[in-house]
Amino acid sequence: MNSRLKAGEKMIHYLGTPILETDRLVLRKVELSDAQSVFDHWLCDDRVMDNLIKGAHKSVSETIERVKEIVSQYDSEEFCYWGIELKTSGELIGAIDLFQFDSLTENCEVGYSIGYYWGNKGYGTEALRAVIDFAFRHMNIHKISAAHNIDNPASGKIMRKNGMEQEGTIKHMIRNAKNHYKDCAVYGLLQEDYFKVMK
Ligand SMILES: CC(C)(COP(=O)(O)OP(=O)(O)OC[C@H]1O[C@@H](n2cnc3c(N)ncnc32)[C@H](O)[C@@H]1OP(=O)(O)O)[C@@H](O)C(=O)NCCC(=O)NCCS
Questions:
Q1: Share of the chain above pLDDT 90, in %
Q2: How would residue 197 be classed by pLDDT, with cut points 50, 70 and 90?
Q3: Which of 109, 142, 179, 185 has its CA 20 to 30 A from that of 166?
Q4: Where do the structural domains in the chain lie, given as residue ranges?
Q5: Ligand 1 midpoint to CA 185 (Å)
Q6: 125: Cβ below 6 Å to ligand 1?
Q7: Could you tell me which CATH class the domain 20-144 is placed in?
Q8: CA 2 to ligand 1 centroid distance, Å
C-alpha cells in the first residue's frame, strides 16, 4: 500500500482490461489473431501514425511482435489496453489505453488511435468517453491527462468533447519517428470535475 495514504483513503482500483460496450463499439482485449487487422487498419498508415511518437510499421511482422507484447501484459491487472471493435461489422478499427499510472498521485494518461478509413465518424469520441468513465467510476483514477501535437487538432477535439481541458502547450515535447520536433497541447480532467457533470 502507498505509505502516504491513510486507511480508507482512495487508491487506484486496478481491474485489468474488461470489456466495455458503447452504442456502436465493443472495447475488448487485443488478440494475436488481430495482428493483421492492427497492421492494415492503422499501424501501417502514416496518416495515423505520424501523430504518434513511434511511426508506422513497415511490415506485419513488426505488428505481430507488438501484439505479442500487448497480449503478454494482460496477465497484469494494471494493464489497460483495449482494441476498438465495430459492433456492426466486427472490424477492429483502433485501440485505446490507459498508462503511466502514478501511485503517489493516482493519476494516469490516455492514448488512442482510430484507423483513417473510420475517422470523423465519432468513434474516437465514443471510445474515449467509455474509457474515461471506466477510469473514474471503477478504477478511482484521480486525474486523466493526454497530449497531442498541435498539428493534430482532431485529437484535441475529442478530448474537449469529453470534458478534458487544455492546460498549456509544451514546445518540442516530442520528436517523432520522422525526426520532427512537435509542440504539444496538454489536456487534463479531474475525477471530481467529471462527477460534477456526470453523476
Ligand atoms: C484523434 C483520433 C483518435 C480521432 O478519432 P475520430 O474517430 O476521428 O474522432 P471523432 O470522429 O470522434 O471526432 C473527431 C473530431 O475532430 C474534428 N476534426 C477532424 N479533423 C479536424 C481538423 N483538421 N481540425 C479541426 N477539427 C478536426 C472532427 O470534425 C470531429 O469533431 P466533430 O465531431 O465535432 O465534427 C484519430 O483521428 C486518430 O487516431 N488520429 C491519429 C492518431 C492520434 O492522433 N492519436 C492521438 C494522439 S494524442
A1: 90
A2: confident
A3: 179
A4: 20-144
A5: 14
A6: yes
A7: alpha beta
A8: 37
